[in-house]
Amino acid sequence: MLSRLCKPLIANSFLLFGARGTGKSTLVKSLLAPLNPLIVNLLESTHIESALFALPELEARIEAAAQTGRWVFIDEVQKAPRLLDVAQRLIDEKGARFAISGSSARKLRRGGGNLLAGRAYSFQLFPLTSVELAGIFDLDTHLAFGGLPTVWNSTDPRERTLYLRSYVTTYLKEEISEEQIVRKIEPFSRFLQVAAQSSGTIINYSKIARDVGVSDQTVKTYFQILEDTLLGTVLPPYRRSIRKAQGQSPKFYFFDTGVIRTLNRQIDRPLTDETYNYGALFEHFIIHEIMRRANYAERDWAFSFIRTADDQELDLVIDRPGMKTLVVEIKSTKLIRAEHTEVAARLGKDIPDCEIVVLSRDTEPKQYGPVRCMNWQEGIAHMFQG
Fold it and tell me: Do 147 and 118 contact (CB within 8 A), yes or no?
């Protein structure tokens, strides 16, 4: 089993959130295995039926385990949010300990998922980072097939392709259709494809609405669904003025490059180096790598991007309390030259007391004026020093 950077503390009850297939069940089971927990897997039809139609029976099993001091692991709790009421009561009355996983913050909010506030720590699990993959990590493989653990359990490209196609289909069926998050699955399915094509760019709600055949507000709701089901991240524009920032559209990044390529019907095609598509996937990978490692390291960092009126762009601005603001430009090239740093140097002047870096596949460190150029692995490691 791969060692994960996410380290839930088992001194207290905890919630573990993450998209389907990121390895939540595997991680929790490995943590609690020596403690002989009661496992309630709500993806199993028998447990779903018990939870939804015979809650007292399931509650009795959970209470019996709590009475003896056993941990209780409720897997994919969004299938039966009412079990959070049970967990809250038993934590308060019996000092019970729960590990609770979920992949739909939207469903939990509707079902009262805030009830454990102050009673359980909260953690998040993402697709695999380069650090977690360690010796088996390969950049091109990660860009082509993403970081879901099942992808890395196989070395067969066909098996990986079949899994990712099934993953996308399963998501549509289980997370959207069965839970009735949207009334009509067809326009949402079209939206997923259009959103994948524009992933990493500034969201144009009106254009996407026209392409999908729905209203602008519906498109905004669809993006919120992707956020709530942990299948993507919104990156806001950088502005010193919050009021001005609210008037600008954000970017949206799907959570996994393999899923992006699957939605774009590219998963069975080879990934070609030094193309626009390769560069876009590399940008996705680097941004997620930084955000995920910051989350696991429990750094309270804020992330944004810069886009000027004349279409000059900086990929990432990282506000690090107690440290210099970090301006990051991402280039997939293997050979950084001075012209690659010009935009970062120019726009970085407007951010006081910042550090400017360019991350690329170039293995030779370089310095062009105020811009420090590093290989992406060394550069990300540098960010977390201090």
Answer: no
Round to whole Å and give the CA distance between 328 and 257.
Answer: 20
CB-CB contact of 14 with 22 (8 Å): no
Residue 86: which H helix or E strand, with range? helix 83-94
- Best CA proximity match to 97, nearest among 74, 77, 124, 125: 74
- Structure tokens, 269: 């095609």
Query: Is there a contact between 190 and 213 (Cβ–Cβ < 8 Å)?
Result: yes
Structural domain range at position 93: 14-124
Three-state SS letters, 304-367: EEEECCCCCEEEEEEECCCCCEEEEEECCCCCCCHHHHHHHHHHHCCCCCEEEEEEECCCCCEE
Confirm whether pTM is higher than 0.90.
yes
Domain CATH code at residue 322: 3.40.1350
According to DSSP, residue 297 is labeled: T
Which residue is associated with the tokens 């996407």?
Answer: 208
Q: How is residue 165 written in tokens? A: 């196609």
Question: Region 253-274: what's the mean pLDDT?
Answer: 95
Sheet harboring 371-375: ordered strands across? 302-307, 313-319, 325-330, 354-360, 371-375, 366-368
Establish if 6 belongs to a structural domain. Answer: no
Residues 369 and 358: beta-carbon distance below 8 Å: no
Element (H, E) at 375: strand 371-375
Q: Indicate whether 343 and 263 sit together in one domain.
A: no
What tens digit of pLDDT does each residue of 121-179 get?
Answer: 999 999 999 999 999 999 999 999 999 999 999 999 999 999 999 999 887 766 676 55
Flag whether 246 is in a domain: yes
pLDDT digits over 146-157, tens only?
A: 999 999 999 999
Of the candidates 244, 278, 312, which is a domain's last residue? 278
Strands (E), 171-307: 232-235, 251-254, 302-307
If you compute the radius of gyration of the chain from its CA atoms, what whole number of angstroms results?
Answer: 22
Task: Reply yes or no on whether the pLDDT at 241 is more than 50.
Answer: no
**How many domains are contained in the chain?**
3
Residue with tokens 């970090």: 326
